Amino acid sequence: MATTEIYRYLDCQNKKIGLDPEGYLVDLDDWSPAVAQALAEEESIILTREHWEVLDVLRDFYARFEMAPAMRPLVKAIGQALGSEKGRSLHLMRLFPGSSAKVAARLAGLPKPTHCL
């Protein structure tokens, strides 16, 4: 289901994935681990096990609450799911430089988190 107009396409495994002007998926059902890898390459991020843990928590959060969390709720969700050592903003900033909540949501195939500039 398209929520916005397609701005550009991401080529992934012989499929064109529609992206909005900020690089988020237009159709959330287009997400796959391969799409996450392709989006991560655009961010110059090499996905590790730690990245995938966060992406899994994010996708679970979205499935439960139908929204992508901003930084504070994301940190709290990560802490609850993965432990207090990983539930810190510094950990997330190391994995997803820049605006961590936005970058992680984008790679997880979720909409832009509310209250993120």
From TrEMBL:
Its EC number(s): 2.8.1.-
GO cellular component labels: cytoplasm
Localization terms from the record: Cytoplasm
Class in the EC hierarchy, top level: transferase
GO biological process, one term: tRNA wobble position uridine thiolation
InterPro entries xrefs: DsrC-like_C, DsrC-like_dom_sf, DsrC-like_N, DsrC/TusE
Gene Ontology terms for molecular function: sulfur carrier activity; transferase activity
Pfam family, one: DsrC
Keywords in alphabetical order: Cytoplasm, Transferase
Active site, per annotation: C116
Protein origin, superkingdom: Bacteria
Main location per the UniProt record: cytoplasm
Function as written in the Swiss-Prot or TrEMBL entry: Part of a sulfur-relay system.
Family: Belongs to the dsrC/tusE family.
Protein name: Sulfurtransferase
Source organism per UniProt: Halomonas cerina
